[in-house]
Design a protein that fits this description.
The chain has a domain at 2-96. Helices cover 73% and strands 0% of the residues. The chain is mainly alpha-helical.
Length: 136
Amino acid sequence: MFKEERRQKEEAKRTSDEAIAHAQRLVEENKKLRKTLNHGESVLVEQAKGRVEAELAKAKQEYKDAYEAGDPDKLVEAQEKLNQLQNERYRVNNYKPPVRAEEPEIPPQATSRSQIKEPTGKDKEWLQKNKNLDKF
């Protein structure tokens, strides 16, 4: 009887340790993904800024050419394009990334064996059925 209880406690400890390790891996993976997302987003914003500035320079030249040619239709068209690009530059320069949910932190007490309660009931059943979940 004592051996059975000891075996169950060891299995519960092992399962609990695996769950903690799995949660820590998930938190680390989440941090890496957030970092990648933020980096990619900043790269896209910088590319958009560069594109808008290049298009603005081209539109300014078209406006000058239309002015020098004295062509009112091309002048209006160039002015409209300048206005649209200036608006786009304003939006790109004032872009604020969306607020994302804070990343969950594993509380320090969750990694301390003395603070962890042994699983019971449905939790214990689920852990026993899914003890190899992190091996996929």
